[in-house]
Design brief:
The strands form four sheets. A five-stranded antiparallel sheet has the order 2-3-1-11-12, with helices on both faces. Strands 6-8-7 form a three-stranded antiparallel sheet. The protein is an alpha+beta fold and about 250 residues long. About 25% of the residues lie in helices and about 20% in strands.
C-alpha cells in the first residue's frame, strides 16, 4: 500500500542547494574583485575562531583591507587551484595552502606594517571546553563573587547551579559561599564544560585570541612565508564558533 502524502515528514532545516550554490558564486566573485583591488594576499590562521574578534579586525582595517573567513574550498576556488584556473599568476600556490582554520586578508599596506599590527593584536576571551588552562584559578573562602567584584556576590538562586558545577557551596546570609578555598582549575588542565562555564560565571578569562599570519603573496614577490608568529594562548584543542566553516566571508 503506498504511503500517504499526509504522513510525509518535511525538514524545516533543509537548505536550498540552488541558493547555497548562488551564495558561493557571489562570495567567489567578491574575492576575485578584491584580488584586483589590493596588492597583497595574506593567509592567516586561528586556533579557535571568535567571530567578535574577527569583527574587531574588520573594523580596524575598514577602508584599507578586506578579511575573508569561510569555507577553504570556496576561497581556494576564487584564487584558482591550478595554473590554468588561477585569477593571477602564482595564486594557485596560495590556494593550495588554504587548509584548516584559515582565512584571507587583502591589503596594499606594506608587509612590515601588517606584521607589526597583527603581532600587537590580541583579545582576552573566555576559555572553552577542551582548552588547556594557562594558569591556576583558586576561589578564596567566603562569598563567591562575579568578576572579582566584592560588591557583586552571586544571588541565592544561583547556589544550586554553582554546586552542580562542582563548588562546595553553602548559603551564608543568603549568599553562596565557600568555607574553604577551592580549586577551579590548575595550569595545564584540559578544561571540562563545567570548568569553562564556571570560569565564565566568575568572569575569569584564560584564553587570548590572536590571528597568526602564515605568509603573503604579491605579483612582485610571489609567496613569502612568515616565521616566528605567536600562537593563540589557551586555545589548544578547543572547537571554534564555526566548526563547519560557515563564518561570514567578508565585511559589508
Amino acid at each position: 500500500m503506498p504511503k500517504s502524502k499526509k504522513a510525509k515528514v518535511v525538514s524545516l532545516t533543509k537548505t536550498d542547494k540552488r541558493a547555497t550554490k548562488a551564495a558561493k558564486g557571489v562570495q567567489i566573485e567578491d574575492i576575485k574583485a578584491n584580488l584586483d583591488t589590493w596588492k597583497y594576499v595574506w593567509i592567516f590562521a586561528v586556533g579557535n575562531m571568535r567571530n567578535s574578534a574577527l569583527k574587531d579586525v574588520r573594523q580596524a582595517w575598514k577602508g584599507s583591507g578586506r578579511v575573508f573567513f569561510g569555507r577553504s574550498k570556496v576561497m581556494a576556488k576564487a584564487l584558482g587551484t591550478t595554473p590554468e584556473e588561477e585569477h593571477k599568476p602564482g595564486l594557485n600556490v596560495v590556494a593550495r595552502k588554504l587548509n584548516g582554520q584559515v582565512g584571507l586578508f587583502l591589503t596594499s599596506d606594506p608587509p612590515d606594517e601588517v606584521i607589526s599590527w597583527f603581532e600587537s593584536f590580541s583579545k582576552p576571551d573566555f576559555a572553552r571546553s577542551g582548552n588547556v588552562a594557562s594558569q591556576d584559578v583558586v576561589l578564596p573562602a567566603g562569598p563567591i563573587v562575579m568578576y572579582n567584584d566584592p560588591a557583586s556576590p552571586f544571588p541565592s538562586t544561583m547556589e544550586p547551579q554553582l554546586r552542580k558545577l562542582g563548588l562546595s557551596t553553602r548559603l551564608i546570609k543568603g549568599v553562596p559561599s565557600l568555607e574553604n578555598p577551592q580549586v577551579v582549575c590548575k595550569k595545564g588542565d584540559k578544561l571540562t564544560p563545567e570548568q569553562t562555564q564556571l570560569l565564565k560565571l566568575i568572569g575569569h578569562r584564560l584564553a587570548v585570541f590572536r590571528m597568526r599570519l602564515v605568509g603573503h603573496w604579491s605579483e612582485d614577490d610571489g609567496w613569502v612565508e612568515v616565521e616566528g608568529f605567536p600562537e593563540d594562548e589557551g586555545n589548544v584543542g578547543a572547537e571554534s564558533e564555526d566548526d563547519d566553516g560557515n563564518a561570514d566571508m567578508g565585511d559589508d
